[in-house]
Structure formats: C-alpha cells, structure tokens
C-alpha cells in the first residue's frame, strides 16, 4: 500500500525516538527535515505527505465546498495516515509508540485529531500552531501522552477560542500539556523553537 505514498525517511540512532514529520497545508514530506534535525539531531526521521491536493495545495484532509472541514474526509484520511505510519514504521524498523510527532498547522491538526479520537499510537508531540477540528464528546484518557503546543496571539488561522478549546480537550483527557503562546502569527518563530527544543530535551530518549 505504501507504493504510492510520498514519504521521506532518514535513518538515525536506533536508541533515539523517531520523529514523525507532518507538514502544513501546501507542504511536502521533507518540509520539516531541517527543523527536526535541529531539534533532534540523531533521531530517525519519517515524513509523510498528505495525499489530497486542494487548489494546488497538498493537505491531509479536505474542506467542504462551503469552506468548513470535511469530517468524512478527515475520518478517512486519519485512517489512511495512521495505517501508512504503521506500514512505514514496520518497513523501516521504527516503533510507532516511541515516535514524537513534529506537526505544523494542517499536520499538527491531524495529530491532535488522532489523539482526541483515541486512534494514535504515538505518545508525544510538538504541535506547531494546531487547531481543534471538531467537537470531541468522549475522549478516553490520554494520561500517557505528552504534548507541547504553540499558538500566536495574532494568528489569522487559529483563533484564541479555537486554541483554548483544543487545550481544554487535551487537558480534560489528562494529556501532560505544555503551551507556548506569543504575540506572533501563523509562522514559526525562533523563541517558539527554543521552547519546543527545551521541552523535547526533557522527554526524548
Ligand atoms: C487546516 O486546514 O488544517 C487549518 O486551516 C490549518 C491549515 O490551513 O493548514
């Protein structure tokens, strides 16, 4: 099944947690390589490209015709992404439960959605500018999950209310959550990376 998947893999130290890179809208499987190498120099890296293209931009799930999130596409593509991660992990001898997600925007949203629907096997992640994609009524405990998540006060894509809803959902599910907020937009900033790096150093094997 992974024959048609656009992915990036780089081997690393077997003792280090693999980094799972999930790009933002319009991104590619290797977009976050420089960032991942900066944050976790010796880790194996796996990046997977979302398989949808909307108005020329790669994505992990579709919008509806009226601009909302297409929840059927979201469910379908989450299943696809998680199955693809499993297959590539097996192929490259990586343990999914040891992976640390490095997700930006659309990719971070997928990881958060996978956790909040209790489908994710990975247990840690750096979510750069994530948002909550839907209401989650019953989330089983995620008390073994550690997440660092960032938000910009002047982000035109992720509202303060949405980020708050996301952090509330994660907190309610007992995630060990670290939040970075600053007066920044949707782009990743140096202080944000410094904070993520500091967090990662505490949890990386
Ligand atoms: C999404 O579609 O996941 C969000 O709007 C963020 C993005 O545009 O990537």
UniProtKB/TrEMBL annotation:
Keywords: Hydrolase
Classification via Gene3D superfamilies: alpha/beta hydrolase
GO MF entries: hydrolase activity
Recorded superkingdom: Bacteria
Record has Hydrolase as a keyword: yes
InterPro entries in the cross-refs: AB_hydrolase_fold (IPR029058), PLipase/COase/thioEstase (IPR003140)
Start and end residues of each Phospholipase/carboxylesterase/thioesterase domain: 77-203
UniProt keyword Signal present: no
UniProt protein name: Alpha/beta hydrolase
Phylogenetic placement of the source organism: Bacteria, Bacillati, Bacillota, Bacilli, Lactobacillales
């Amino acid at each position: 099944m992974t024959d048609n998947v656009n992915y990036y893999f780089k081997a690393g130290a077997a003792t280090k947690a693999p980094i799972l890179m999930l790009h933002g809208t319009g991104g590619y499987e290797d977009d976050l390589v420089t960032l991942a190498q900066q944050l976790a120099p010796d880790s194996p890296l796996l990046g997977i490209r979302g398989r949808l293209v909307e108005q020329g931009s790669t994505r992990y799930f579709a919008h509806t015709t009226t601009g909302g999130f297409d929840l059927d596409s979201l469910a379908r593509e989450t299943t696809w992404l998680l199955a693809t991660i499993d297959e590539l992990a097996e192929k490259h001898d990586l343990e999914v439960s040891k992976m640390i997600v490095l997700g930006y925007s659309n990719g971070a949203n997928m990881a958060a959605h996978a956790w909040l629907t209790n489908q994710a096997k990975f247990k840690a992640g750096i979510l750069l500018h994530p948002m909550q994609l839907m209401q989650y009524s019953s989330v089983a405990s995620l008390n073994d999950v550690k997440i660092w998540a960032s938000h910009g006060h002047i982000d035109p894509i992720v509202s303060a209310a949405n980020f708050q809803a996301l952090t509330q959902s994660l907190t309610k599910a007992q995630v060990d959550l670290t939040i970075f907020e600053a007066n920044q937009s949707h782009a990743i900033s140096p202080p944000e990376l410094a904070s993520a790096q500091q967090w990662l150093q505490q949890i990386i094997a």
